[in-house]
Amino acid sequence: MIRKKAYENRKVVMIGIIVLTGFILVARLFYVQLINDKYLLSAANNVLRYMTQYPARGNVFDRNKNLMVYNETAYDLMVTPRLVQKIDTLEFCHLIGITKEEFKKKMIRARNYSSYRASVFEEQISKGNFGFIEEKLFKFTGFYVQPRTLRKYPRPTAAHILGYVGEVNPQDIEANPYYKQGDYIGKSGLEKSYEEVIRGKKGLKIKMVDVFNREKGNYMEGKYDTVAIPGNDLYVTIDAELQAYGELLMQNKRGSIVAIEPSTGEILALISSPTYDPNLLIGRVRSKNYNMLSTDTLKPLFNRALLAQYPPGSTFKLVDALIGQQEEVLTTETRYSCGGVGSSPIKCSHNHYSPLNLVEAIEQSCNPYFWNVFRSIIDNRKYKSTTEAYMTWREYVMSFNLGKTFNSDMTVERSGNVPDPACYDKYFGKNSWRSLTIRSLSIGQGVLLVTPLQLAKVTAIIANRGYYYVPHLVRAIGVDGRIIVKNWERKNTMVSQRYFLPVIEGMFRVFNAGHGTARYYSSDSIQMCGKTGTVQNPHGKDHSIFLAFAPKDNPKIAITVIVENAGFGSTYAAPIATLMINKYILREFEKPWFEEKILNTNLNLPN
Amino acid sequence: MKSRTNIGKNIDWWLVTIYLVMVFLGWISIYAAVYDEDHKSILDLSQNYGRQLLFIATSFVLALVILLTDTKFFSAFAFPIYILLLFFLVGVLIFGKEIGGSRSWFQIGAFSLQPAEFAKFATNLAVAKYLSSLNMDLKKLKPVLRSALILAIPSLLIFMQNDTGSALVYSSFVFVLYREGLPGEVLVIIFSLIVLFVLALLVKPIFVIGGLGLVTAILIYLSRRNIRNMATLVLILIIASAYVESVSYGFNHFLEPHQQSRINVLLGKDTDVQGAGYNVHQSLIAIGSGGFKGKGFLNGTQTKFNFVPEQSTDFIFCTVGEEWGFVGSMVVVGLFIALLIRLIILSERQRSQFSRIYGYGVVSILFFHFMVNIAMTLGLFPVIGIPLPYFSYGGSSLWSFTILLFIFIKLDSYRLNVL
């Protein structure tokens, strides 16, 4: 066994390594157990309690610095199952206000989560009793109270805009490890789209707790503690009073109102009706109320202003009027007759003399006129084919931001639909369709779809005479008190400024001329411009739409109102828009005769 | 006619005693770790300590069976046993149950078996058999590669189960190879690689390379008369620098975030006491608060309230540290060192190569577990799932370590019969 002898010395190396390792371990043990008292908990057998410090979520202020959302402290009852010794269950249940069965269920749930980590036993214990409960908690080891904040709304408005806050789900935790089970996260609206801005940063306090459940001080004098950083406040563009007024006007009706400040793109009001009281979705009552709201057939949780899509109806004539002028197939003097031969293929729904010029046609919303405008755009000899003309027309339309989405600070949006030539090709056959085939587009019907927000944007474009700023909800974020304003882009349309003037004149006459479709609602103190729309739809009565802006020069507000299944644009949408404009510009005003009628109308009753 | 009456003779009772003491201490530690007011009886089968007793009893049966088996069985069937375990390792990847991110267990009725544990002694047998063949020379490359292969296959299969800790165990066999002739330089190189690895993660690679450059420059100056040495030094510097860079790169690009955090916590770069650092932090608190004498049996608060996760398995040493203090910890460390040194002494006195090599295998495997596990609880090593032999709760673990040891006891008891 030559080999054996040759390497026998190596056993020394082996033993050496083993002994050396042993020494290292012993030295480390010596250090950890005898020298460094960092790890030593005092003789009173303390245990450590990890208390998350929940930061205050950012407040939300409206454009006039009124508070729209703030925080209220609530107290969760936490439990660490492993620490729960024999307790007087009956007394405990009586103290907290739960039954014995509920107690058992909650303990099982806590144990399933972890027997040595704390979890929420009971959410938001009654505020009145909190002090009393905390005093008595020493009898029940393993339980303690953890403060946190809940959202509170001074006024029950703007629920869709603000959104709500709920507990994180496993996907949220997986996506971002900052969140732990039991944390809150914004689920919709601004709470969600600005979550990272307003949530702040959690802190941590590690406390030593003795066997009698009494806090004995900070672990390591707070060396591992971190301070919670409150979230940034949001300053939104909404005018809370205007918003509340609009919601009041829209009660018992379905539809939406969108109001924008044209010069900046700031959204003054965004109303979807039916709406709901945001206080319903807070804390303990949230699940129950959420279920109730989500099963309501009128869909109060659905944000119609951003997501509902409608054909624009007669309001779309404005866009064609602009395109026609830009394409030079239309001037202010162009006239088309609407009686006799002119009443085909589209009939006029209003009674007026004929033929009308452009301004008058807008004032009186003449269908055959705009059919001819549309035809002249599509049949323009300049283009080699209908498809080519249509695509140019479509490009114009999309420059008004219809048929596509934009990047803003809202969580959801729809693009509407401006049909692609391919869609007509498929339906009618390639190159087999003409302007006559797609004539419904000329009066804003057919497969053309827009959202209320998009229509409001179009209104703002006209108010501005040719451009718009991306509509947004937040003007500033308060960081340590400094206000930071984001810069939003200005977007131009493809139509020159001078072509907007006749359209505006027409819209002015809608209110102020003898045959204007909204002449009953004109105001002496404000110069308003508007356009009615009555949208046919397969589900029932026509939708009532109205666009407006005021004052005519230097407009301050551009507004769109849509009331579902309400008949003529002038019956409901126009007066509502007018009232909103009055409210915004005048603040206090003498209530016109139609206000009471609007407030008391209930369109949701079966007829 | 080696009759049954000879079993008692020649068995090394030191080994058996240490084994029994450890198993017993392990058992009562588990009791303390899992102690529950509602289940006070130490024999309660629904609790870990009751079950561990069952495992202990069955281990005694296994030990007895091994002692009754003909010694030649082990060397004769070394390779078949090894191949069989490889089959099981493949099988568990397909049929196994997934627990805690790794697919390493077979579930048979109420029992779970972990083939990775049994693969340890099986590989030991195979290595011993291979290295004991005639004309084995570990200074040549082919035998080294073949040995590496015998080790690499099970290691890789276990790695595929996502059980990195158990896969790393096989690296400890380098000591066996060293004792059988593997050039010492290999050991030095491996040691340097480890040191560089740690340095590469602790400080920026640039600084490490800078430091290496400095050392190389000094060495080059010292051997400036010898061109060949200088060239070699430069070559080593280049290779070392590339290694350092790739370690850093690999860490940042190939490791999962949770693995990165564990290593960062170890290096002291990350003190997230609620996240990745939680286990180690709790462990240190438990052990640290044991002080000199410990808090006393069943009085460990961290233990009692289960603040240390995995306390009856990977972190069992915490119970020792907290309840028996520095004194108790030293006793346990001392027991392991005594066991290992005794094993080395016995291995050296073997006449059969197979027995000696196998013995060194036992030493290496146990050393790796003992060192890594305790270092882990003390925050000296990243947390990988390695049990403390004979202490940690677990059937597969206890059985396989018992088999591992008792095969050697049997081989040793027979040493005088070898020509």
Label this structure with key terms.
heterodimer; A: 607 residues; alpha+beta; seven-stranded mixed beta sheet; five-stranded antiparallel beta sheet; 21 helices; B: 419 residues; mainly alpha; three-stranded antiparallel beta sheet; 17 helices; 3 strands; globular
Looking at how many chains there are and whether they match, the oligomeric state comes to heterodimer
Per DSSP E runs of 2 or more residues, the count of β-strands of chain A stands at 19
Strand content of chain B: under 5%
* Structure class of chain A: alpha+beta
The helix content of chain A is 25-40%
Backbone shape of chain A: elongated
Major pleated sheet of chain A: 7 strands, mixed
Strand content of chain A: 15-25%
Count the E strands of chain B: 3
The Cα radius of gyration of chain A reads 33 Å
**What is the number of helical segments of chain A per DSSP (H or I, 4+ residues)?**
21
Binned, the helix content of chain B reads 55-70%
Q: pLDDT below 50 for ≥5 consecutive residues: which ranges of chain B?
A: none
Outline of chain B: globular
Distance between the termini of chain B: 17 Å
Write a structural description:
The complex is a heterodimer of chains A (607) and B (419). Chain A is of the alpha+beta class and 607 residues long. Chain A has 21 helices and 19 strands. In chain A, strands 2, 3, 4, 5, 10, 14 and 15 form a seven-stranded mixed beta sheet that branches. A five-stranded antiparallel beta sheet of chain A has the order 12-11-19-18-17, sandwiched between helices. Chain A has a three-stranded antiparallel beta sheet with strand order 1-8-9, with no helix packed on it. In chain A, helix 10 packs antiparallel against helix 20 (573-586), helix 13 crosses helix 15 (367-378) and helix 14 packs across helix 19 (500-512). Chain B has a three-stranded antiparallel beta sheet, with helices on one face. In chain B, helix 15 packs antiparallel against helix 16 (353-377) and helix 16 (353-377) runs antiparallel to helix 17. Chain B is mainly alpha-helical. The two termini of chain B are 17 Å apart. Chain B has 17 helices and three strands. In chain B, 67% of the residues lie in helices and 3% in strands. Classes of the chains: A alpha+beta (607), B mainly alpha (419).
